[in-house]
């Protein structure tokens, strides 16, 4: 696998265009700003740069081969490190039939079994190892002569830390149990920013989503459709899923689509239940509980080691009068502006009334000109303030 000579310059040009478009979209299109187009392009650039480093792909292949060394169902190309560089990847060639061509060559029962085996391999990568091939489209999967599944192109991979694995398990349980409060808490915890612009509407949409799946057991749940709806729900409320979760959701949807080439009615829920049970057993296993307790004790140990020095610093700053309090407000500018305008309007009305009553010169037909002008300006200012409050519908705070 040899990298094209001019690919870096072409990709840099394309990325510069994407960065420019993202910055303009973020600056001029309010509807796109919550989705952080610039951040998306930066993440896209990071993934592309990793895929262009063939030494990284070589290490991915070695890691996959180690993880599945005793599994006869799957095979990864063997790399040759002494013949690899950042731009040249030398590995075994896997000769087989692409999954895209298999439906015309296999009997239906063989195709069904192959779809289930392939999906199991990817689910083991995700839920067992937390390190998975992130591009399971038909062109990257081949059926080898000995019946094993060959997996190609390990440039794009994903990692699922134990904490994210637990959150994903909780999400599946929340869907299966129909608990909107739990699902709102999980999605809010996972997403950026961590606050929802309209919590009431978000909770209502989550409850509506769960009502459709109410009473459906996890082993009959349409995982692909449910995950797609979750992504759309999160996007509609201007939340952003972390890269790890977003990539995993994409992989699961693509994986199910690839399996359906072999078995049109295939659903991931057919084989995901054993992995769900394994995750549940691992979470409550004595070893996992001991590990959590050990981590908590370690955190407390670090806290107690740093606490005396931190308390001493606070006391020294207090004695020296250098304690600072920083306040951060959000969207208070309109309210503050209205408050200032209201105070100014009240002061102008009071001052103008006094000038009018005292007939302060200069006068016109016995009326103070300055008082009259002040009163006119006060009326205009008051009308503007009332219109601003009316448009914001904020009479009730």
List the helices and strands and how they pair.
Blueprint: H1 7-28, H2 37-51, H3 54-67, E1 74-75, E2 97-98, H4 108-129, E3 131-133, E4 141-143, E5 149-151, E6 157-159, H5 162-177, H6 180-190, H7 199-212, H8 223-236, H9 243-262, H10 269-283, H11 286-319, H12 333-357, E7 363-364, E8 367-368, H13 369-392
Parallel strand pairs: 1-5
Antiparallel strand pairs: 2-4, 3-6, 4-5, 7-8
Residue ranges: pLDDT <50 for 5 or more in a row? none
- The neighbouring-strand order within the major sheet is 1-5-4-2
Question: What is the total tally of β strands?
Answer: 8
Please report the number of helical segments.
Answer: 13
Radius of gyration over C-alpha positions, nearest whole angstrom: 31 Å
- Tell me the distance between the termini: 64 Å
Mean pLDDT across all residues, rounded? Answer: 82
Largest sheet report = 4 strands, mixed
Can you walk through the features of this model?
The chain has 13 helices and eight strands. It is mainly alpha-helical. It has a four-stranded mixed β-sheet, with helices on one face. It has a two-stranded antiparallel sheet with strand order 3-6. Helix 4 (about 110-130) runs parallel beside helix 10. It is elongated, with a radius of gyration of 31 Å.
